[in-house]
Amino acid sequence: MTLNVGVIGAGMIGQAHIRRLAERVSGARVVAVADVDAERAKQAAQPVGARALASGEDVIADPGVDAVVVASWGPAHAQHVLGAIAAGKPVFCEKPLATTEEDCRQIVAAEVAAGRRLVQVGFMRRYDPGYRQMKAVLDSGDLGAPLLIHCVHRNPAAAESYHSEMATQDTAVHELDVVRWLLADEIVSAQVVTGRSTAHRSPHLIDPQVMLFETASGVRVDLEVFVNCQYGYDIQCELVAELGTIRLPDPAAVTVRHRARIATEVLQGWPERFAAAFDAEFAEWVAGATAGRLTGPSAWDGYAVAVASDATVRALHSGRIEQVHLSTRPAFYAR
Ligand code: NAP
Questions:
Q1: Extended strands (E) in 187-320
Q2: Distance from residue 58's CA to the centre of ligand 1 (Å)
Q3: What is the pLDDT of residues 138-175, one digit of tens each?
Q4: The domain that contains 18 carries what CATH number?
């Protein structure tokens, strides 16, 4: 059986997901695309033989669409995720699930009321082979209990429009999710420490930022977000446990010895670094949507990350440790 997918939002990542579904993920085809820019929707739809529709609502209502991908900008996510739930159609929503805690709460409530999982959130790091190996080692129990996690998230350069809150909302959200997933634990507090900023940034941006999180079981997490590091896209993660440590491997790359130097390439962006993760994420979503059993990051994960992200932004402004207050996790989302 082929899953007929409708895509809402045909910008950078929407187009990448359309190509992914057409070329690299089996069991699905893109049949409809909508974007606020009708011409953009047409250009994205045409190469894969899909129809360009006028709006996200049209995509959701289309009887030929079995499942929906939401890849529009964040503030538009909630309306289409809620629309897909109301239509009983599985929906893959790029992060963030929604831009307000209240919208995330509404989505969780709507899904629980629907009685089955219909939402998967685009936290693709859970599908990265390196993070998966880290989790397998931790879950084996051989290293004892986790104590600390050290994370680094560096980008070569950020656009002028990138502001200080986005270090959390756009960037650190990936660590907030992957840390919760690695530890099967929730973040309970956040703090942001800032110091000297790089000269290679826009004047309104504090860069780098050091974020400190604590989980319910007492694990301490530190995260450096540095989005104008100049040299490349560099994701690091080291977990310290009672009996040893687990380090995220760097992407496979040859080492070149040449002219008295030893060199290894540093990737320049997330599309290359997490290409395999995006493909695996969509393969699992297509299989789950087809079988009626979604297994990837849930609406609860989207909600929990949104609440932790809000606390981190508050901490940036207050300079204090801010608490993360989650509502009770519905049994529906049992781990
Ligand atoms: P983008 O290039 O700006 O694309 C978003 C597209 O959605 C634009 O064409 C936009 O049109 C359109 N749009 C906005 N509101 C819409 C609506 N109500 N209905 C239909 N289309 C609408 O942004 P992007 O970089 O692709 O990001 C899209 C989403 O993916 C964001 O939520 C972002 O956080 C997420 N993302 C995730 C990752 C990841 O690592 N998982 C990486 C990148 C992006 P206009 O431009 O005309 O408004």
A1: 187-194, 209-215, 220-226, 234-241, 245-247, 255-258, 261-264
A2: 18
A3: 999 999 999 999 999 999 999 999 999 999 999 999 99
A4: 3.40.50.720
